[in-house]
């Protein structure tokens, strides 16, 4: 539908069409649910992005002030704790696209102004005609494994008492496995053998695709890159079970994080 | 090293330092090897990107004219047939970074001019101070499987007689598995159950990360999206064996393509 301007125009006119306002990137939340509004409440100057159909009903994100509307504009990550998983995913996805539009008003190729295109899934340049698409940055997040032990680390900005799987951006020219090996070597000095893909999930803060993996450690001595990590150490399965039970030596990542899936999958097997 | 301007300056002065010229994105090739040059042959105005260390010797890409140098500037994909796999990967990676710099002279956020930073792994804006990094676009490429049969398709721009695994960009807000399911449903009308990750590889034309997967088909009736594919059909394992033997009904993807790995892995198991 996004490629068809007439279909998107018709979708906007559909009586079941709804818009989710994003005010300063914060979605409107009303009583722990998304604050969808009707066309009559849409601000004239709102930037609109087509999100898709929900049971045949068109859904849009709208960058606009939430003043005077029912509910409250709330930070997506804080709201994710109380929204349903489906609503949290919509809020995060909409926020990511609105953010991208607001930071891509100009063409990287020629510097001219760009305009929203393809119902919000592209911007086109008025100068050189280049088309720009939202980026999705692949990130590897991996649990280095040494038999009954797994490696967790602490970035300086983590909350106190919290450790998680190591992670880093896939760089141009790398495969996923190469990125896993490079990151564990750079950040913790660990050499890795086999890499196994576990799962992936979008993490739209602002636009990551988290790719979770297990990585077999061939060495275990930790050499920290102080710029990236302030601590890293090996944890036994018993310690991780204790972490999940709430009485471990550190705090576990929240269930919405893929690091949780990695730890849970490993600890339960 | 890229974060340390003094280290990169020292690397440039290293007697073993070499530069690979890219003329109009074409690397210098001399007698089926990369045409590395010394600093004395480097053009004054060359855009330089630090690629890394080869056995302790610094290596750079240099966007500059190749006129007067030994060898010939050649298209990366054509040259990949005769270069060693390691050299082909360096040429493709360098081309991808040069291309990105040349198309990102301006800041998407404010429209001001940007300058090369971090030894070529970033550009920074002289106006608003935003930092921009090369993008890596995750692409799923997958073999839908129905027992003894796999699905191949033909994009309109493919060479005659050539079919391959279906593929498409991972969109913002999706996981890898969701992208696999969406693409196969949109392009061929096939419903997918389980998805299994097989392998990944960079495909820097201009900047893709190809993520290869097997996808269990739950339906087999093909409904083509004419905008994307001009043909798609199921092939038996016997047919794929014949394709690899050079007497099949279509031509196989080249061994450097991940589609080859997918087909080979499936057919040999």
Automatic annotation (TrEMBL), chains A, B:
Positions in coiled-coil regions: none
NCBIfam families assigned: PRK00241.1 (NF001299)
Record flagged with keyword Magnesium: yes
Keywords tagged on the record: Hydrolase, Magnesium, Metal-binding
Protein name, entry field: NAD(+) diphosphatase
Source organism, top-level taxon: Bacteria
Enzyme class: hydrolase
Annotated ranges, domain Nudix hydrolase: 134-258
UniProt xrefs under Pfam families: NUDIX, NUDIX-like, Zn_ribbon_NUD
EC number(s) reported in the record: 3.6.1.22
Molecular functions (GO terms): hydrolase activity
């Amino acid at each position: 539908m996004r490629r068809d301007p007439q279909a998107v125009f018709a979708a906007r006119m559909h009586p079941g069409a709804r818009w989710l306002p994003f005010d300063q990137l914060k979605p409107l939340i009303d009583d722990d649910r998304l604050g969808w509004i009707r066309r009559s409440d849409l601000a004239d100057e709102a930037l609109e992005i087509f999100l898709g159909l929900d049971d045949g009903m068109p859904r849009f994100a709208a960058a606009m002030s939430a003043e005077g509307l029912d509910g409250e504009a709330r930070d997506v990550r804080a709201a994710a704790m109380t929204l349903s998983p489906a609503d949290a995913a919509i809020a995060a996805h909409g926020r990511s696209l609105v953010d991208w539009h607001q930071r891509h008003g100009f063409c990287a190729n020629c510097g001219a102004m760009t305009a929203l295109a393809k119902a919000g899934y592209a911007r086109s340049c008025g100068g050189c005609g280049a088309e720009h698409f939202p980026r999705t940055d692949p990130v590897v997040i991996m649990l280095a494994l040494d038999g009954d032990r797994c490696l967790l680390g602490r970035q300086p900005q983590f909350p106190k008492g919290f450790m998680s799987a190591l992670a880093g951006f896939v760089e141009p020219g790398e495969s996923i496995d190469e990125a896993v090996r490079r990151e564990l070597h750079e950040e913790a000095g660990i050499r890795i053998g086999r890499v196994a893909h576990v799962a992936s999930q979008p993490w739209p803060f602002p636009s990551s695709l988290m790719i979770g993996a297990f990585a077999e450690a061939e060495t275990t001595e930790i050499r920290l890159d102080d710029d990236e990590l302030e601590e890293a150490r090996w944890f036994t399965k018993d310690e991780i079970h204790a972490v999940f039970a709430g009485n471990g030596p550190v705090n576990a990542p929240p269930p919405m994080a893929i690091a949780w899936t990695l730890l849970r999958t490993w600890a339960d097997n």
